[in-house]
Amino acid sequence: MKHWSEREKIIFHIDCNSAYLSWESIYRLSKGITTIDYRTVPAIVGGDPKTRRGIVLTKSIPAKKYGIQTGETLHKALQKCPHLVILKPNYGLYMMCSNAMMEILEEYSPKIQRFSVDEVFLDFTGMTDLLGDPITVANKIRERINDELGFTVNIGISSNKLLAKMASDNLGKPNKTHELWPEQIEEKFWPLPIEDLFMVGRATAPKLHKLGIRTIGQLAQTDINHIKYTLKSHGVMIWQYANGIEDSTVRKSNYVTMKGVGNGTTIAYDIDRIKEAYYYLLSLSESIGMRLRASGNMCSVVSISIRYSDMSNKQHQRKLFTPTDTTDNIYRIALELFDATWSGEPLRQLRIRTSGLVPNTHRQTTLFDRVNSEKVRNLDFVVDDIRKRFGKNSIIRGTLVDTELSAVTGGVVDEYPMMTSLI
DNA sequence: TCTGGGGTCCTAGGACCC
DNA sequence: TCTGGGGTCCTAGGACCC
After folding, report:
1. Among the four residues A8, A298, A356, A368, which has the most C-beta atoms within 10 Å?
2. What's the predicted TM-score (pTM) here?
């Protein structure tokens, strides 16, 4: 194997082990909320502990021993382990933990990409003269995160982002450093099941099985044209991944390239009265409008999607003549789209998404704008400011007062990192 | 007995234009 | 009376990620 000093590129992938669960644990221990370290007992983060509904987001290692899987329902998980501890997710806390880790990582390279709240790529190329060999540095980083922040991470090292990620994800957890260089692909990467490959999910795996492909190695050695025929461009991409081919750069902060802002909410009971759906849409519009304005953008497309009780989805979108960032506009369009889409069947989930973002610096008004649109817009900014200072529910729309809804529904964490589905 | 919430990207089909 | 080919834009739906 080559010596590290001969490597053209050295990429780290840092992945927090059971991120949400570790962070909840540390937080609750440090605040004296509990004396139990939830990492050491069967526990999960996800859903609502009171209603016992929702899905498992992260599980502890003891919970894993009960066969509990990420993504399964709390109901199912509780059947496997009746005394399972359920913790409600708190995204603001996770963002703080993530930021603290970023601060440490910034000492090791200027080229860092936050891939999600708990995953980071770090370009270590050219840093060896200054900091030493990659393995020693990676181990040092793990040690520091553990000592200073109290949680463990896995670190994968390779010559590109894909292999670095595969190394930290699939070669053993927790608290480990793994190398996966191109010349080790055959031995360490190819024996893994095809499901472990990045971008092979629920729909693609069965298609590959039909072609007789069960391991990453089998995909890598299949004729690319054969794969291309059945899986199109997605097939070409995963074939390249299986062969360790991937060449993207570690880009700084991906939230600046944000493509859209959206929110959705699952309705606890099947709502069938149209007025209640309107309240939800208003509350969602408030949060989207607020985040849009905070990001300095306006949207030129508004879309809504509806999920019915049978889990089927319907979606409807509209391109706007003039981009907007006012809550009122988003809400009105969402209502029209909803009315044109809803079949009248009971609803499970409502979602609004805005896209086609343009900076709000050169705002254009048209004759067709609402009469007092500028006033409405200014009011939005005033309300945003009050909510920022006094809390989300300090100002609430009259129509929402008598409902159980929050004034603002949906994530409002500032600068929440955007996941890009492609590396 | 049920299935979160935040995203991105790709594809197919229709409308429209030259 | 019959109707090409290429391009762009828009919409709906599906697949994937953490």
Report:
1. A298
2. 0.90
